[in-house]
Amino acid sequence: MIGGSGGRRDREPDPDASTALPVPGPCASTHRALAECHRRASLGALQPEVLCRHLNRALAECVVTACCPDETEAVRTLCGSAGTALKRTQCQRARIDLSLCLEAHQEP
């Protein structure tokens, strides 16, 4: 579309962007890429949730793995494919353990 807005919509700045906590360690580069994606998305026609979903997922997985590496690996190992009743029970237990670990890392 020449001379038009190209389907862009004016968006309000993300109120959480200025108050976001820095992400240290192995997830920092993914966090920076996500912030840049959100910045670029604000200039285009697509919502950041659509345009940046792969980075949202990557950052979430990185943070969860950094916080609870053993529990994350257990879920990947035990819940990655169908199996016996025992494996399903172990998968359910691994998911609970991961939830408890993540809960322990949350601020009150």
Question: Which features characterize this protein?
Answer:
single chain, 108 residues, mainly alpha, 2 domains, 60% helix, disordered N terminus
Explained architecture:
The protein has helices at residues 28-41, 48-51, 53-67, 69-79, 85-105. By secondary structure, the protein is mainly alpha-helical. The protein folds into 2 domains: 26-67; 69-107. The longest helix is centred in the C-terminal third of the chain and has 21 residues, at 85-105. Residues 1-19 have low confidence and may be disordered.
The share of residues in extended strands comes to under 5%
Count of helix runs: 5
- Major beta-sheet overview: none
Q: Name the structural class.
A: mainly alpha
| Global morphology | elongated
Low-pLDDT stretches are 1-19
Tell me the span between the first and last alpha carbons: 50 Å
How many domain units?
Answer: 2
Give me the strand/helix succession: HHHHH
Taking Cα atoms only, what radius of gyration do you get, to the nearest Å? 19 Å
Number of strands: 0
Helix content: 55-70%
Averaged pLDDT, please? 80
Protein name: COX assembly mitochondrial protein
Region (Disordered): 1-25
Organism: Dichanthelium oligosanthes
What's the arrangement of secondary structure elements?
Layout: H1 28-41, H2 48-51, H3 53-67, H4 69-79, H5 85-105
Helix pairs in contact: 1-3, 3-4, 4-5
Describe the structure concisely.
The chain has 108 residues and is mainly alpha-helical.
